[in-house]
């Protein structure tokens, strides 16, 4: 019992803190998302070349930001979990992975929907697209290794090792893909060096980015809570089995 | 240190006496490369264009094929437990295993690669670059692969998971490796690419054994 208390001391505090944050994150998500969508769909001017297609960017770019941010967060919490054996850190990394994979997927899909009218094709082997695709594979591998162990403590460690090796590799992959792209495709399709981003576009973009972050915090809290409760349930079930 | 070399020697002897391990990955490599001309068509210009990529991808896959055997056999007969309990640090054990894997499963591919390069109509200079790039770059494949092999050791269907975990991490090696050969085909210096490959290999030499040893301790605990 003493071990149990020690184990749950941190999750309990964590649950208390997150329960306080949760309503705020919900309201922030709703307000920022509505505001951001209004700003980006109605207020922001259409691009002089791309027309209304440019509005896809307001959904696409924050998703790509989130995809990278969530992997970094996963790596940091994996390191914390590995070094200080902090169970909540492991669960946070686990809970964040599917959300990150969804954001990566969203970035890829919206990117290719934007690419169809702009480049005339759904997919271009552009450096950014390719490295996002590789990031999606890294997410999938991370999620797969969590599923492959029966023992959650072992799975947490294995996944943490993988996430850390992955995060060391990401800059190398990014660099090599950039290199590969310039070697094989000298005429880049997506040159963004037109006019610099104007504030009428930048503000909706930032609001959408904040909305995505608030959304991520909200979903992350739900998922981590569910993971903690799942573990408690497991402990209770085992205890019940022992008694009977 | 003598234990380290004894372990390498033991693994090499095992691989040679079983025999099938070396010939299997070698014939896999050759067959995969042979499939490409059959699929793409026999035009020599096309083959020379895709040749470096085909050879590198085939080498990646052949290496992946033998990776799950790196710790699996020792895990099954229990000798891996003894090796970890023994006086040698687990990191060194991993390094010995990696060297043995590279010598038995990857080096034969590098030996045969020039012949396959000729069959894909690669010019002579680029075959030298190809061999050099393979020599410098493939240690990374074994080193990073060891991490995946250590994490999946003891799993029933570890091989499939291994490829999902490891292949994305192989991408830099593939890109720089092909770039080196392409550069020499274009009469440019392959040296920058080879240096980058060497840098990646040295980085993997640091990270690989550490992470793989952590993975092994975890899988056996």
With helices defined by DSSP (H or I, 4 residues minimum), what is the helix count of chain A?
6
| Low-confidence regions of chain B | none
Please report the total strand number of chain A as a whole number: 0
Radius of gyration of chain A, CA atoms, in whole angstroms: 21 Å
Estimate the strand proportion of chain A: under 5%
Structural class by secondary-structure content of chain B: mainly alpha
Instruction: List the total number of helices of chain B.
Output: 9
- Summed up, the domain count of chain A is 1
The largest interface is: A-B, 26 and 27 residues
Helix content of chain B: over 70%
How far apart the termini of chain A lie comes to 18 Å
Helicity level of chain A, as a percent range?
over 70%
Total domains of chain B, how many?
1
Oligomeric form: heterodimer
Q: What characteristic shape of chain A results from the CA principal axes? A: globular
Mean pLDDT across all amino acids of chain A: 81
C-alpha termini separation of chain B: 26 Å
> What is the residue-averaged pLDDT of chain B?
88
Question: Major sheet of chain A, described briefly?
Answer: none
Defining traits:
heterodimer, A: about 240 residues, mainly alpha, 6 helices, disordered N terminus, B: about 220 residues, 9 helices, elongated
